[in-house]
Amino acid sequence: MTVLGDPNAMTTAELRSARANLQMQEDVISFVRRMAQGRCDLARDE
Question: What share of the chain has pLDDT > 90, as a percent?
């Protein structure tokens, strides 16, 4: 998890970098959630 400082004190480049990092983290979390949901679906169907 990323902790951000004050966005008003960040440069545009820092904000863009932080946003990209957070988007990557969101993608990973979403992937893990989909994998877990798929496993739950498979277990339920057994």
Answer: 85
